[in-house]
Design the sequence.
């Protein structure tokens, strides 16, 4: 158990809908990262927050947004869902946000299925 | 541009065989970090090792060992005397110090099947 929690574990929804994925980092970790794992794209970095502020952006679609709250939990919002958004979404956390040398601990993931 | 290549898509071995998973990376940074993660069938990502670009010393942890060679931009992972529980997808990843503040760039993964 990495100490990172993600809810829900599974989510099934329809095209055009909007969903929110939730992540609670390990105690003491200030950085939260979101990754998407799909069959065709593999594991891709989406976005990073550090202590409530957006720190880095990867291949995140404009239909997707995220935020980190004062209690450091984070939410990833996916809207106008398409079939291709079906994937496993991972949240990871780390202590720092300033350097590359910090181990990221991954949550169990949320499996999103868009029908 | 940064990139991680795991050329072996799938490997199948019989229990107790040794197996090496290859990882080749590309980066322009002089300071970077390399990682290996394991994703068992249950789906979670388990951290295995982190290595920085200034430390080319090989590492051994039980049945696992890692060979980092900057000259060939490779960071290979060997499992000695493989076991069925080693069956998983293994990902190599790169993080650049000068890049997007530590996000991980993953390879496509190598699926290892260890048969009894």
Sequence:
């Amino acid at each position: 158990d990495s100490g990172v929690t993600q809810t829900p574990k599974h989510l099934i929804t329809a095209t055009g809908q909007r969903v929110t994925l939730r992540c609670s980092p390990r105690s003491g970790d200030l950085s939260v990262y979101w990754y998407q794992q799909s069959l065709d794209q593999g594991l891709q970095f989406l976005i990073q927050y550090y202590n409530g502020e957006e720190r880095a952006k990867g291949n995140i679609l404009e239909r997707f947004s995220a935020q980190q709250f004062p209690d450091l939990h984070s939410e990833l919002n996916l809207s106008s869902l398409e079939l291709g958004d079906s994937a496993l979404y991972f949240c990871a956390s780390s202590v720092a946000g300033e350097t590359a040398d910090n181990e990221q601990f991954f949550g169990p993931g949320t499996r999103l299925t868009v029908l | 541009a940064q990139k991680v290549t795991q050329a072996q898509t799938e490997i199948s071995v019989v229990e107790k065989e040794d197996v090496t998973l290859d990882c080749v990376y590309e980066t322009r940074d002089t300071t970077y970090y390399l990682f290996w993660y394991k994703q068992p069938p249950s789906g979670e990502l388990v951290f295995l090792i982190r290595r920085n670009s200034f430390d080319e010393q090989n590492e051994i942890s039980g049945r696992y060992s890692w060979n980092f060679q900057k000259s060939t931009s490779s960071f290979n992972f060997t499992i000695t005397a493989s076991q069925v529980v080693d069956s998983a997808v293994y990902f190599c990843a790169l993080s650049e110090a000068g890049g997007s503040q530590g996000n991980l760039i993953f390879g496509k993964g190598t699926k290892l099947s260890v048969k009894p």
Q: What stands out?
A: The mean pLDDT of chain A is 93. The CA atoms of residues 20 and 77 of chain A lie 5 Å apart. Chain A has no helices and eleven strands. Chain A touches chain B through 33 residues (CB under 8 Å).
